[in-house]
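Lab notebook, design round three. We kept the backbone fixed and only want residue identities now. Task for the bench partner: fill in a sequence for the structure below.
Input structure tokens:
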């Protein structure tokens, strides 16, 4: 790849690069939490190389005067999108220049795949400073808010405890997850998400088949450890009409990947009932010493004021925002 900076070369990581690349990767690991808002420590170097060699991820390395100075990681193995996971520059130096060189190489390498796949890129932490630069390549943006319910150290529990919800009407009932509700979940989630911002950067939500893949990966522990006992289903006359899924990352961080409800049942505060039941179950699991859960987190769009209000009402607090960027296929 040629560029105005003749000292740069960007290419896929090879075994011959491993020794020199380790320093750059270790620098990223040391900054993952502070600079990029990672919830958990990333893979160690050996684990990272193993993932590269198994083609679970691809790593593009930028060399300056033949020395590794930055890298970009992406994958096509998880969803129907091309997921750009991280762009990192050693010691955060010359971040914009190096990141743009890597991005151009990434777009070159994925040109054929991008004919029918979007690119999604959560710009966590310092990466949000690249917004203006990647926008020139056709990337669009959705603001995402990260909210947390902490098991200790805040007043989240107190807020939840004093929250009073109107009683459910007699036709409604809350129950725990059971596999027999799987296909109902696919239909309800697909209906709720097909026109959402999530579908912009995960097009699987646009089809039943794609949504089935998402739900399968949730309940089969592909994304994280599924918590069926804390996943709540809303029944209306014994028919499933709402779902609040819950999973666990790293053995201690609970996450709400999806809350969905049939359109005709929206606007009645029913999602709040599902969410409250799921969080109360997590508190029970924690207090009984079954799992050492430290927090429950979730995300929603920064302009989804109804969802933000619901989470705040139940004790969640906004931690930080980040831009979720995506490159539509039409922008090739």
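Proposed sequence:
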């Amino acid at each position: 790849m040629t560029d105005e900076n003749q000292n740069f070369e960007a290419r896929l990581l090879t075994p011959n690069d491993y020794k020199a690349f380790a320093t750059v990767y270790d620098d990223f690991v040391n900054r993952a939490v502070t600079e990029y808002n990672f919830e958990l420590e990333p893979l160690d170097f050996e684990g990272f190389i193993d993932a590269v060699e198994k083609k679970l991820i691809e790593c593009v390395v930028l060399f300056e005067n033949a020395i590794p100075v930055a890298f970009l990681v992406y994958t096509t193995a998880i969803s129907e999108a091309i997921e750009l996971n991280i762009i990192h520059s050693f010691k955060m130096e010359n971040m914009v220049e190096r990141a743009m060189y890597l991005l151009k190489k990434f777009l070159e390498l994925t040109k054929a795949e991008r004919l029918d796949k979007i690119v999604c890129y959560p710009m966590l932490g310092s990466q949000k400073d690249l917004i203006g630069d990647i926008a020139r390549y056709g990337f669009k943006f959705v603001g995402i808010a990260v909210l947390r319910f902490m098991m200790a150290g805040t007043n989240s529990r107190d807020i939840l405890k004093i929250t009073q919800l109107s009683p459910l009407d007699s036709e409604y009932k809350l129950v725990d997850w059971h596999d027999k509700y799987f296909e109902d979940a696919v239909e309800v989630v697909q209906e709720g998400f097909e026109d959402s911002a999530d579908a912009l950067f995960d097009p699987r939500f646009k089809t039943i088949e794609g949504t089935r893949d998402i739900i399968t990966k949730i309940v089969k522990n592909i994304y994280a450890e599924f918590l069926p006992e804390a996943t709540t289903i809303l029944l209306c006359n014994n028919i499933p009409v709402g779902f609040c899924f819950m999973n666990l990352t790293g053995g201690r961080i609970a996450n709400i990947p999806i809350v969905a409800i049939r359109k005709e049942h929206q606007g009645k505060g029913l999602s709040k009932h599902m969410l409250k039941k799921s969080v109360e179950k997590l508190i029970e699991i924690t207090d009984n010493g079954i799992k050492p859960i430290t927090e429950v987190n979730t995300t929603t769009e920064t302009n989804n004021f109804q969802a933000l209000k619901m989470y705040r009402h139940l004790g969640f607090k906004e931690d930080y925002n980040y831009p979720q960027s995506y490159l539509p296929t039409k922008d090739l």
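Keep this in mind before ordering anything: The first helix runs from residue 18 to 36.
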